[in-house]
Amino acid sequence: MSSPGEYYQSLPPISKAYGTLCLLFTVVYQLGILEPVHVALIYKLVFYRFQVWRLFTNFFFLGKFSINFGIRLLMIARYGVQLEKGPFDRRTADFMWMMIFGAFSMLLLSAIPIFWTPFLGVSLVFMILYVWSREFPNAQINLYGLVTLKAFYLPWAMLALDVIFGSPLMPDLLGILAGHLYYFLTVLHPLATGKTLLKTPRWVHKIVARWRIGAPAPTSRSTSTQPQPERSTGVAFTGRSYRLAD
């Protein structure tokens, strides 16, 4: 892209919207307009004072401006965009449902005291990273110029680095758990049994169609006439019998 503006406009809708909201929340915090405690996930305030917005706003705060914040934002810009433009291309509703399902799963897990964390933004980013690592398991990743490893192991390597650098373990772990649950229900279990336990609800498709979010899904005619991507690219939900070995 010739300019940052053109790059931003080229981003797929869901990743662009989520990354933008995370950036805006941090900017508002740095300007002193918003205190994190007002958007944190505190279940007592949700249920006893009906501050239901906390169930949503906690996903958009990735922390103050720092190296860690920059890394999380870059993870959205790289792995989220690659997912949305690759395996989820023309399947915006499915990508949106992945994010919604992951967020709902994390809210349920976080209700257990041992798993509770006030902000689940990092967890949602780690879920995106985990699903990406399963879609592109053989991609070679150079981690900070120190070591090269397969993408399949990247979530665990990032979790280990966070522990080494003193970041909380629980947000990363919640994201990995939610990502594995989604991947199991939508890919591994259908490949093993032929039964799909988790499908994108119609209301998500209606939202995407109503607001014209993303590119329209291909018709059956256009799908049949276009060549199918090679399996080595990790195409989602189509001909992935090789994944059983994972």
Structure characterization notes:
It is built from eleven helices and two strands, in the order H-H-H-H-H-H-H-E-E-H-H-H-H. The protein is mostly helical and 246 residues long. It has a two-stranded antiparallel sheet with strand order 1-2. Helix 5 (67-85) crosses helix 7 and helix 6 crosses helix 10 (202-211). It is globular. The protein starts with a helix and ends in a 21-residue tail after the last helix.
Q: What key phrases describe this protein's structure?
A:
single chain; 246 residues; mainly alpha; two-stranded antiparallel sheet; 11 helices; globular; disordered C terminus
Beta percentage is: under 5%
Mean pLDDT: 88
**Biggest β-sheet, characterized?**
2 strands, antiparallel
Q: What is the first-to-last residue Cα distance?
A: 36 Å
Poorly predicted regions are 220-246
Spatial ordering of strands, largest sheet: 1-2
Please give a quick description of this structure.
The chain is mainly alpha-helical and 246 residues long.
What's the SSE blueprint?
Layout: H1 4-10, H2 13-30, H3 43-48, H4 54-57, H5 67-85, H6 92-110, H7 121-135, E1 140-143, E2 147-150, H8 154-164, H9 169-193, H10 202-211, H11 220-225
Antiparallel strand pairs: 1-2
Helix pairs in contact: 2-5, 5-7, 6-7, 6-9, 6-10, 7-9, 8-9
